[in-house]
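Entry for the shared binder. Reason: the reviewer on the internal report wants the predicted structure included alongside the sequence.
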Amino acid sequence: QVAAIVAKACAPGAGDTCNQVPYGVPVAAVRAFLRTAPAGAVPPAPWLGIQGVSEDNNGVRGVRIASIHPQSPAAAAGLRAGNSAGQADLVVAVDGLPVQTPEALAANMNQRGVGDSVELLVFGNGRFRQVNLVLRAAPEAPQKMKK
């Protein structure tokens, strides 16, 4: 018999930070909630906020950032978009796992949740750097991406 579920959640912090705190919920409360949730309800998908293309930049393979949503975690982290590898950042790995196609990057993001922290290995301006960011849900209204 399961009596409760214990998990972690984000408590609001200064700015956009997430202070993880443990909490417990009685199973009876979870069952009651699930009975009232619409059948088609789904949690928000984690969102990085970029559009990318596969690219090889002098032997470094990854996903070149073609455009960035201005309100995205990628924009807040200072990632750069552009039409060529010399102008744009190339996402090479996520949490140490290589990504070489936009599909591989999307699959990696879809295994995560809103509020998860990720570490990107990025190649830009001829050097590698690590970028940490927190995924969040996409905004409701679509906006134009910046190139």
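Summary line for the report: The longest helix spans residues 27-36.
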